[in-house]
Design brief:
The complex is a heterotetramer of chains A (341), B (390), C (255) and D (369). Helices cover 44% and strands 18% of the residues of chain B. With 390 residues, chain B is of the alpha/beta class. A seven-stranded mixed beta sheet of chain B has the order 7-6-8-9-10-13-14, with helices on both faces. In chain B, strands 2-1-3-4-5 form a five-stranded parallel beta sheet, with helices on both faces. Chain D is built from 14 helices and two strands; from the N terminus they run H-H-H-H-H-H-H-E-E-H-H-H-H-H-H-H. In chain D, strand 1 and strand 2 form a beta hairpin. Chain D has 369 residues and is mainly α. In chain D, strands 1-2 form a two-stranded antiparallel sheet. Classes of the chains: A mainly alpha (341), B alpha/beta (390), C alpha/beta (255), D mainly alpha (369).
């Protein structure tokens, strides 16, 4: 019961904290800064979910934008194309009412996540046969295939993109709440995985697949599950992006997006959740901060990327985490236990 | 207990962060009481459509400079803030948000590409800041809201013009070669097909390429086999030249038709002689028209940038000029005030024609058909909207 | 009935038979040695037993069950655990975490409950933690439980590998050169240890070893492999006297 | 039938080009197990060298105005091609030296200085307008100064470099270099597309059966085949070539046998760069395609796919992969599915990799247990 009480406190606490922070931020932040904050949140989810595949399970996946695209497009297709049909039979879904909005969004999230998860299985299966760079190329190629397929589906706008998606997540505090709620979910899941005995099997696959297999770890299942979970989260990020920005187009989900997400994970230190999230913030916000540098900003950005890779090859945090324990240590208190990889 | 302790700490940290960020809120003064009026511009200064973006930006800058030299608006100088969106739709939205909310722009100019205009338009609509697009031709753009305007014609009109011209010219079988990645190209192709078929023509083949491809011979060869009288290639000039060369190389010698995406001083260097005798539709801007306002514009532009302007530069100039003109007439120098003034624009004498905005916030302008003749684009024909029943 | 039975097992790579037509058996409770010169196919045989390779011909029966077509993790679940010739620890994980990976075979909670961190999962985790620590203690590794495995000294890494294999609660333990790179004292310790775990964990052991002292010292029965073929089988004393074995190790003495 | 033959010819021409670039990928992969993402951008540099050689550096004459200059132009074109190859191989060596070698050997002082300078220049460039009154000399001096001041920063960052064996890491470095070349190219060359004017005579030959072949296609094919044969000779029969093969077999063993691996790796990059440079310059001059700093992106990606398809590390594999990709693409582009052109290239790749995980001609090395 103690556990139940604690869990209730943490979950309710998290929701309350998110709600308070979102209210404060949306009320006080300049809209442009707030937009960048939301973009950071989406990027954090993407980096965190790719970290599940690349960092924790050690699979070389560099086509994450494909899953992001599947989520965004399927989610948006639901709200734009199918929801108006569904609402005829289910008046509950009527847009404009808080209940209808939330339900529609929830369904969008579910379909988006499911579609991305299916895509995850499709990409995850080759991972059973392919390793390293070869797998990387297949994932990259898959991302491109997704993009080209979307370009050719006229119902979702083709090259024009899909516009006029209702802003179901709102543009203010609600959006922040959803996006960062998702971030919290990714973090919580990663943390649980890295702490529990079950979750260690994922790390074992990263460290040594053959040894893991010999120790009774079903590596096939671990890998496919990692792909499914990772891509489902990317899918949800896509759904939220679509319903916040109200328009999506295939060029948003191109190869450069995939590469940036991979960069976030590597820059943060593969396997380090906090590192990935921090790198996501840096890589999203930095180009905005460097905006005053105009033409030069992308040169500086790419040079910095190389320099960081050369000077800190293990990424910003290696496999380590910045956690509250770190702060506590900094404050001079003893670490409260709980081994972290 | 450590876990909830951690979460509590997190909550406190988040609160601290929120309060900290609170201090960061921009304290920028409101536009009304400063002695500058800010116009925002978002353009593709880098990326795939950089040439269009840079041309347009040059035109806009020229117009603003001229307006300031003429005394600005009610004694206030105009300050143009330009942001680069790197030819990306999602970035267009971010920079427009920045222009509108942080820089407090009272009007926004941009973009060339319709996809990006459509992505950014809702922001302008939401914050009630008028947006004038110099050359987004997709009909959808101005349907995004009553704050969105354009100073050019729309694709359906332009493509219909080309379709009618093709039929009038005696072509009965047309093949289409479009850029799959480019919504302008796709929409143009569709509208052309509609118009051409309505006239009585037939579309015999359709193939596509993607911006960045270097080899088009396979598709062209397939189109050649369909025996067309003409090929519609509504892409950007950067590919059209290569496509034309490769078409001639494989012995496909029929005329190639295109739209305003062709208009660039680089079209001929890219195509060599391969496009001689081909036609494209364009905005009403050509040195050949011998109009005084065009001559003056070209002269001023050359003086400032040391190069010849294209139609996009002229449209940028007109878009900026239109906004400045509306500001002079506006009852109040804020978003809604300027919007109303823009909406009431009648007979604005631009370089690219007389601009009267209709109830759908589109400019009703004539289109030219230009014939490529060596390095010169000759005016072949002029179409008015009324001629096509629009 | 034998715990492990090989019936005419052959494995070819390309045209080359790495092991050919091996018929052998290991009985419950035995401690069997597998020796042979370098490249004789010993490790290949282990790989065949654990499902890393599938036999080209013949069958491997574990506890009467044909293991053909089973993936390594399934075979591990049946009760065969192994160590590796070149140590394959999860380098970035601590000693305890290494063992915990293997202990998962005995987990009751599902992956989903691990992801959402349920109460049942917590209880299960506590139990597994105990099991893992037990395995570490058995190999005398409780002091280094929280050390990253790649930071451990070589001898301890070998021990940790055995400890990790034991954590799957195997019925048959395959040790691939457990004494490689150890000094004579460490080897003595190791021999003692192998005997102890054999009794305390009630496990059958099949080991590959080059060090004759170790093999002769602890094995009850020995198989000799040369060029992929079984050339001798018997008690240590018989093997020592077998001319074929001597020939295989020293080359033909008669010119 | 004529259609099929015609498409096949286009496919072979396109494929020979892919193969040329793919060789650079596959050689580097062979010796370093590194996907050199920047290789496509070296190809882009080759195109720009070709462009500048044809329009500024060499006295080419436009054939439209001077039809008699054809012979002289062809001679000059050979010079331009060699120039592109030389500059691109230098480029390849430079990239290897300052971006990839530190990954293997740790960041040395010289690397820190180099990257300090690189960081310094764009930052100075930002203040160019401020210096415009003082002239470029002052700006360059200030740039040097700022770059010089940045060195210790990089050196300080690198004070505790831990070498990483992560392949992802190398990949991101390669991507970073690629982005740097593209964005640096945008600064230096501008975003406007450039075109090379008519400088070489062009003919079209009609073969029996109505199949048409252009002289530019023949030239691209011929030069590619020649370069591939030359490469094969170098790799099979020269000392550095043999050393390359030794390294790709086992780098540690090669090191122990006294091979200066760093030099041989640099040589590999030089060879790859030369091939890419030749390809870039040829395509730019013969197909008159637009030349922009993003010129190498798509061909680079496809060539890379071709390399993987053939089996990364295998030279014949790269050629086969290139031809296969070229023909597949040509047939798809010519069919009614032309809009799926890029997707189908990848689909072919995925299917082949699933059947043969190491590519068509790659050695599948099972992991030793």
């Amino acid at each position: 019961m103690r556990w139940l009480a604690l869990r209730t406190v943490t979950v309710v606490g998290c929701i309350a904290a998110l709600a308070v922070v979102s209210k404060l931020l949306s009320a006080n932040l300049d809209t442009y800064v707030f937009l960048v904050v939301i973009q950071c949140g989406v990027a954090m989810t993407l980096a965190g979910s790719l970290n599940l595949i690349n960092g924790i399970t050690g699979q070389f996946s560099i086509g994450h934008a494909g899953f992001y695209a599947v989520g965004a497009y399927v989610g948006a297709a639901w709200t734009v194309l199918w929801q108006p049909i569904a609402v005829r039979y289910l008046p509950l879904l009527h847009l404009g009412t808080p209940l209808g909005d939330t339900l529609t969004l929830l369904i969008a999230i579910v379909v988006g996540a499911a579609a991305a998860a299916v895509a995850g299985v499709v990409v995850g299966l080759p991972s059973l046969r392919l390793r390293g760079d070869y797998l990387a190329i297949v994932t990259l190629g898959f991302g491109e295939v997704i993009r080209v397929v979307i370009l050719n589906i006229d119902a979702v706008g083709g090259a024009r993109g899909l516009t006029g998606i209702p802003t179901l997540v709102g543009s203010g505090d609600l959006a922040f709440f959803w996006v960062f709620g998702l971030v919290v979910a990714v973090v919580a899941l990663s943390r649980n995985l890295m702490r529990t005995t079950r979750g260690l099997t994922w790390l074992a696959v990263r460290e040594d697949e053959i040894a893991a297999d010999a120790m009774g770890v079903d590596t096939t299942r671990v890998k496919v599950t990692a792909f499914v979970v990772g891509s489902a989260f990317a899918g949800v990020a896509g759904v939220l992006y679509a319903h916040y920005f109200t328009s999506i187009s295939p060029d948003v989900f191109g190869m450069d997006m995939s590469i940036i997400i991979t960069t976030m994970v590597v820059l943060g230190g593969t396997g380090s959740v906090s590192g990935s999230l921090l790198a996501a913030i840096v890589l999203t916000a930095l180009p905005e901060f460097l905006r005053f540098m105009q033409d030069y900003r992308m040169v500086i950005f790419s040079t910095m990327l190389v320099v960081v890779m050369l000077t800190r090859p293990q990424g910003m945090f290696g496999h380590g985490e910045i956690s509250f324990a770190t702060f506590r240590r900094l404050l001079g208190r003893r670490r409260a236990g709980g081994a972290k990889p | 207990m450590t876990r909830s302790g951690g979460k509590l700490l997190g909550l406190l940290a988040a609160l601290a962060l929120a309060i900290g960020l609170n201090g960061c809120k921009q304290q920028g003064g409101s536009a009304a009481d400063s002695d500058e009026i800010i116009i925002g511009e978002y353009a593709s200064l880098t990326g795939t459509t950089a040439t269009f973006g840079v041309s347009t930006h040059n035109g806009v800058l020229l117009a603003i400079d001229e307006a300031n030299a003429a005394g600005g608006i009610n004694g206030k100088k105009i300050k143009l803030i330009t942001e680069d969106d790197r030819s990306k739709a999602d970035e267009a939205r971010v920079v427009v948000t920045k222009l509108v909310t942080q820089n407090k722009a009272v009007a926004v100019l941009g973009e060339v590409a319709s996809t990006r205009s459509m992505t950014a338009a809702p922001v302008c609509q939401q914050y009630k800041v008028p947006m004038v697009s110099p050359s987004s031709t997709n009909p959808e753009v101005t349907r995004k809201g009553d704050y969105i305007f354009r100073v050019c014609f729309t694709d359906d009109f332009q493509a219909a013009v080309v379709g009618k011209f093709a039929y009038d010219k005696g072509y009965r079988k047309a093949a289409i070669f479009k850029d799959m990645k480019n919504d302008y190209s796709v929409a143009f192709a569709d509208n052309f097909a509609k118009s051409f078929i309505k006239q009585g023509g037939k579309v015999v083949g359709e193939q596509s390429y993607q911006e960045g491809d270097t080899d088009f011979k396979s598709q062209l060869n397939t189109l050649k086999a369909t025996g067309p009288d003409a090929i519609l290639c509504p892409g950007y000039y950067s590919e059209v030249g290569t496509i034309a060369r490769q078409a001639r190389e494989i012995g496909l010698n029929v005329p190639i038709l295109g739209g305003d995406g062709w208009d660039s001083p680089k079209l001929v260097p890219g195509a060599g002689t391969a496009l001689n005798g081909c036609f494209f539709s364009n905005h009403r801007f050509s040195r050949e028209l011998e109009l005084p306002e065009i001559k003056a514009f070209i002269e001023n532009y050359k003086k400032k940038y040391n190069e010849t302007p294209d139609a996009l530069a002229a449209l940028g100039y007109d878009a900026a000029g239109l906004v400045v003109d509306a500001m002079k007439r506006a009852s109040k120098l804020d978003g809604p005030g300027i919007r109303d003034a823009i909406a009431q624009t009648k007979g604005f004498k631009g370089v690219t024609g007389v601009i009267t905005l209709d109830e759908n916030r589109n400019a009703r302008k004539e289109a030219l058909i230009l014939r490529i003749d060596g390095e010169v684009f000759r005016v072949e024909k002029t179409y008015r909207p009324e001629e096509l029943g629009q | 009935m034998s715990l492990l039975e090989l019936r005419g097992v052959t494995r070819r790579f390309g045209g080359l038979a790495a092991v050919s037509d091996i018929t052998a058996h290991v009985d419950t409770g035995e401690l069997v040695g597998l020796i042979g010169p370098n490249g004789a196919g010993k490790t290949t045989l282990f790989n065949l037993l654990t499902g890393v390779y599938a036999p080209s011909e013949g069958a491997v029966l574990f506890d009467g069950k044909d293991t053909r077509g089973l993936r390594p993790c399934r075979i591990a679940a049946l009760g065969i655990a192994r160590t590796f010739q070149n140590i394959r620890l999860f380098r970035e994980l601590t000693a305890l975490q290494n063992v915990k990976v293997a202990v998962n075979l005995r987990a009751r909670s599902s992956l989903f409950s691990a992801m959402v961190d349920t109460m049942a999962q917590r209880a299960d985790d506590a139990r597994l933690d105990g099991l893992a620590r037990e395995c570490l203690t058995a190999m005398g590794l409780e002091q280094v439980a929280d050390t990253r495995s790649c930071d451990l000294p070589y001898g301890l890494q070998r021990r940790l590998e055995i400890s990790r294999a034991l954590a799957t609660r195997p019925r048959l333990l395959l040790l691939d050169e457990p004494a490689a790179g150890m000094n004579p004292f460490e080897k003595q310790d190791l021999m003692q240890l192998i005997r102890t775990i054999q009794t305390t964990f009630d496990v059958t052991v099949l080991l590959i070893e080059h060090d004759m002292k170790v093999v002769m010292g602890i094995c009850e029965r020995i198989y000799v492999l040369d060029y992929g073929q079984l050339i001798a089988e018997g008690a240590p004393a018989e093997i020592r006297a077998n001319p074929k074995v001597i020939a295989a190790y020293l080359g033909e003495e008669t010119d | 039938m004529q259609q099929i033959a015609q498409q096949l010819i286009y496919g072979i021409q396109l494929g020979s080009l892919y193969a040329l670039i793919a060789l650079g990928y596959t050689m580097v992969y062979g010796v370093l197990r590194l996907i050199n993402f920047a290789h496509g951008d070296v190809y882009m540099v080759g195109a720009f060298v070709g462009f500048y050689a044809c329009t500024r550096w060499l006295p080419f004459k436009d054939l439209a105005a001077h039809p008699e200059a054809a012979g002289a132009n062809i001679a000059l074109a050979v010079v331009a091609l060699l120039l592109a190859m030389a500059i691109c191989s230098a480029m390849g060596v430079l990239i290897e030296r300052f971006a990839y070698r530190p990954l293997r050997n740790g960041l040395q002082k010289a690397d820190a200085h180099f990257w300090g300078l690189v960081l310094g220049f764009p930052i100075t460039g930002l203040f160019m307008p401020v210096f415009s009154g003082w002239g470029p000399l002052v700006a360059v001096a200030v740039g040097m100064g700022v770059g010089f001041a940045m060195r210790p920063l990089v050196a300080w960052l690198a004070r505790r470099v831990k070498l990483s064996e992560s392949r992802l890491n190398a990949l991101i470095t390669a991507i970073g270099v690629s982005l740097l070349l593209e964005n640096g190219g945008l600064l230096v060359f501008g975003a406007n597309p450039n075109f090379i004017p008519n400088i070489l005579p062009e003919h079209t030959y009609t073969l029996p059966g109505g199949v048409m072949v252009g002289s530019s296609q023949l030239t691209i094919l011929g030069v590619s085949v020649f370069l591939m044969l030359a490469l094969r000779y170098i790799v099979m029969y020269t000392r550095p070539g043999k050393a390359m093969r030794a390294i790709s077999h086992d780098i540690e063993a090669a090191k122990l046998m006294g091979i200066d691996t760093d030099r041989v790796i640099a040589f590999t990059f030089a060879l790859g760069g030369a091939l890419a440079g030749a390809g870039g310059a040829m395509v730019a001059a013969l197909t008159h395609v637009k030349i922009t700093p993003l010129f190498g992106l798509l061909p680079g990606l496809k060539a890379f796919v071709a390399a993987v398809l053939g089996g990364a590390g295998s030279l014949p594999g790269a050629m086969v992969g290139g031809l296969l990709m070229g023909s597949a693409e040509s047939f798809v582009a010519g069919s009614s599915l032309s809009m799926f052109r890029d997707a189908i290239a990848f689909c072919v790749l995925i299917i082949i990799l699933l059947v043969r995980p190491a590519g068509l001609m790659g050695r599948h090395v099972p992991e030793k247990v």
